[in-house]
Predict the structure of Putative bacterial solute-binding protein 1 family.
Amino acid sequence: MRHTLHASAAALALSAGMAGAGGHLAFTPGEGEFNWDSYQAFAEATDLSGQDLSIFGPWLAGEADAFSNLVAFFNEATGANATYVGSDSLEQQIVIDAEAGSAPDLTVFPQPGLATTMAARGFLTPLPDGTDDWLRENYAAGQSWIDLGTYADGSGNDQLYGFFFNVNVKSLVWYIPENFEDFDYEVPETMEEFKALMDQMVEDGQTPLCVGLGSGGATGWPATDWVEDLMLRTQPPEVYDAWVSNEMPFDDPRVVAAIEEYGSFTRNDDYVVGNANDTASVDFRESPLGLFASPPACMMHRQASFIPAYFPEGTELGEDADFFYFPAFEEKDLGRPVLGAGTLFAITNENPAASAFIEFLKTPFAHEIMMAQDGFLTPFKGANPAAYASDTLRGQGEILTNATTFRFDGSDLMPGGVGAGTFWTGMVDYSSGAKSAADVASEIQASWESLK
């Protein structure tokens, strides 16, 4: 592609024919809602003919296929031979490979924790100069992404190592548009309106929320997402960061208040389907089904972007079910925070092709090709929203590009014994009414201390 894109639209037309004949590019060059100019400019500036590039990541099956489609365009543009390999045991394998001196050139980490550890051990190379400025200017809530990708090196100096690419959104509330229409309900824009809507639903004889915390051995995790979202809506992001790193103890009154705020939604029998003390016994995969009952068991369900996988078969998103942003308090003036997660690229074996791939990820084209395939969201403001494969993805993408703050799932950043242990069990104890928020927070803090 590098040799056929460098001239003009006529060159694109020529390469389109080549793609059709070869069948190795997922999208025909020059067509679709893609910024082909950015791709062409990258191709003209980058010659990696004959160079190999290995990329290791967590994506398997369809996600791996979608990313491999992007890699094919990189190879076509540069003449490189980049290959992607996915694994469901990346966390263990990348450490083994790095220690053996045989790490792949680029690694896609499913969360920052392991990347932080590897940076401290000298296994990562800082991203190309200027990447921080690029993120600040081009990603919504740009500083958030810089902070999430910045870790201390072996000497304790902070460096930007992680480039986030592919993000998901947790700050969503799902509902049935037809049910809202029946009662003339409007989607709330602020948390104050959200609470007023819940009260109106109760007055109308409806139940506002379906809540399910059950998840087998991981029961309780949905409640941690609630608390994290509410921490971002009641406290500045710096406080959230201090909480997640335990620079601020877990039993700080601000955390206790966020847990109690969660309880104000879910520990109220008027607001929750069934007995509010029993939410831990409701499987999180079954809890949204109350939205679809007739008459509806509940009117809303707060959950991340993955939950439609558990909606009734044949549900058409945007028609049968839709979502809105879990709103922020207008009175607290904390902007539009978004809670989520995502994957980040880091250079684990420095070479020109690895740095070039990071530069490739800065093109609108790289994001748009992924947006046109299912399951990819980006905070890149320069990417064309029309490229998204569906209105649902486009709507979630707009939540990201309108965010003023983005924070990673806090429990995923805490030590495993806390984030996937006492935080989960503590929220079950609180949700069932067995313990107070203050007692639960103190016990979680004690468990954290024991791990230090």
